[in-house]
Amino acid sequence: MTPADNPPSSPLPRGSTLQEELAYYKVQYEQLEAELQDFQASSRELEAELEKDVEASEKRERQLKEKVEGLGFEVDEWKTKYKQAKSEANAAQNTLQKEITTLRDTNRTFQLRLRDIEVANDDFERQARNTTSSLEELESKYNVSIERGVMLEEEIKIGEQEREALRIESQRLRNELSDLKIEAEITQGKLRLAEATIGRHHDRKPQPLATQHLRNRSQA
Known about the structure:
This protein is 88% helix and 0% strand. It contains three helices and no strands. The radius of gyration is 55 Å and the shape is rod-shaped. Residues 134-215 form the NUDE domain. It is found in: Cytoplasm, Cytoskeleton. Keywords: Coiled coil, Cytoplasm, Cytoskeleton, Microtubule. Residues 196-220 are annotated as: Disordered.
């Protein structure tokens, strides 16, 4: 399994909340960690199987060489059998050589894959560190946002208190204005009554003595 077999989750959509971003990066981190463990276990298994195959091949080669050497001492007595055994040994040796070549190529392929896995592991570890750093940064921003939210709530409470005080003051001023309007109407009524009374006095045209008497009373 290579890193391309299990691509990361879909990109984080724009406009996500801090909680969604935190959850997204946590899931990415857990997936990367699981894939890293799978790669490490797979590489260990491949190395163990390769060592077993190489040991088995070497053992078979030694056995065949011993058999060829043993047949060499019986050449004179067993020429026919020797030729047949030699042919079989040569065939077996060729087959073994092919198997060894195949195993060497397989070993080389495994080494290249192991190197790619190590590089992928390094990439995953670096990406995991970056994800951890991003999570820490997001948590810090989230805490700052919570603190700002608390401060804004306090400011809203203070603003509501000030607005209530202004509403009470406005109602008091409205009441005072209403009282002043009533007093002004009363004063205007009295003024109109006084003007009407003065007009009636002028219309009566009193005698000189009466006028003098009114003037004396007015001066008094």
